[in-house]
Amino acid sequence: METNTQYSSKPLGLENLNRENQEIEELRQMFKVIISEINELKNQKVEEEKKRLIPFKDVMVMLGIGKTTLYNMVSKEEIPFVRIDRTIKFDKEDIDKFIQGKKKEKFSFQINVGELKGKRYTKKNK
């Protein structure tokens, strides 16, 4: 049984080992930076989620309504809310959508002058 094993003709000298160790250390540093950035993004996401749910009093101020009115809206489910244990919170995005839904569109109309031709309009006196 004959094995054909080939060995590299390059000797592994101290220079090669030092260069490899240096490259490995650079990779470790890059990974540390990447992991640090990932953790920072996770923390930002958690902070955003905390800001997403807003308390009862803030919604009262946003809508310019009193406590009783807002409680009535919640009890009638006229406004979206989140109940966590006994605390009522509101999702900021839902409140923004609610406000947008309550906006009145501007009333505008156009008169086609051609349709008015030949018609006589008189002012009625009372």
Précis, in short:
Helix content is 56%, strand content 9%. The chain is mainly α and 126 residues long.
Topology:
Blueprint: H1 14-52, E1 53-55, H2 56-63, H3 67-75, E2 82-84, E3 87-91, H4 92-102, H5 113-116
Antiparallel strand pairs: 1-3, 2-3
Please tag this protein with its features:
3 strands, mainly alpha, three-stranded antiparallel beta sheet, 126 residues
State the helix count: 5
Give the strand line-up of the largest sheet. Answer: 1-3-2
Low-confidence stretches: none
Give the termini separation.
124 Å
Mean pLDDT: 81
Shape: elongated
Give a count of the beta strands, DSSP E runs of length 2 or more: 3
From the alpha carbons, calculate the radius of gyration and give it in angstroms.
36 Å
Structural class: mainly alpha
- Helical residue percent band: 55-70%
The major β-sheet equals:
3 strands, antiparallel
Percentage of β-strand residues: 5-15%
- What is the string of SSEs from the N terminus onward? HEHHEEHH
Instruction: Specify the oligomeric state.
Output: single chain
